[in-house]
Recover the amino acids of this structure.
């Protein structure tokens, strides 16, 4: 079960029942932009609560959420970024509307 407000989140949703779609699964990741050595930025997945709350080292902005679609196996590309949003509820709602299925949170992040 997904809870709000925004927090560290990693989840997925199957789209296998949709035969007309080229997307097999959707994934939602928590992302933060970090500085690179050239003065630019690199989006990087946030993998721990320490990273999520650590704004002092390298973080340029607050964490946000990215939705990716994993293509079926006969595609050259493995995935495509669908959207970025600062609101977890928006990311989850869009994936659930696209698939008609509930987003499943990865258990590693669902420990209370």
């Amino acid at each position: 079960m997904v809870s709000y407000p925004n927090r560290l989140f990693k989840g997925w949703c199957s789209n296998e029942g949709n035969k007309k779609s080229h997307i097999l699964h959707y994934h939602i990741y928590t992302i933060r932009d970090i500085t690179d050595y050239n003065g630019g930025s690199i989006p990087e997945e946030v993998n721990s609560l320490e990273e999520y709350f650590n704004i002092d080292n390298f973080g340029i902005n607050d964490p946000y959420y990215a939705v990716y679609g994993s293509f079926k196996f006969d595609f050259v590309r493995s995935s495509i970024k669908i959207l970025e949003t600062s609101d977890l509820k928006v990311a989850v709602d869009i994936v659930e509307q696209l698939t008609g299925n509930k987003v499943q949170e990865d258990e590693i992040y669902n420990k209370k």
Q: What stands out?
A: Residues 14 and 31 are 21 Å apart (CA to CA). The mean pLDDT is 85. The first strand starts at residue 10 and ends at 14.
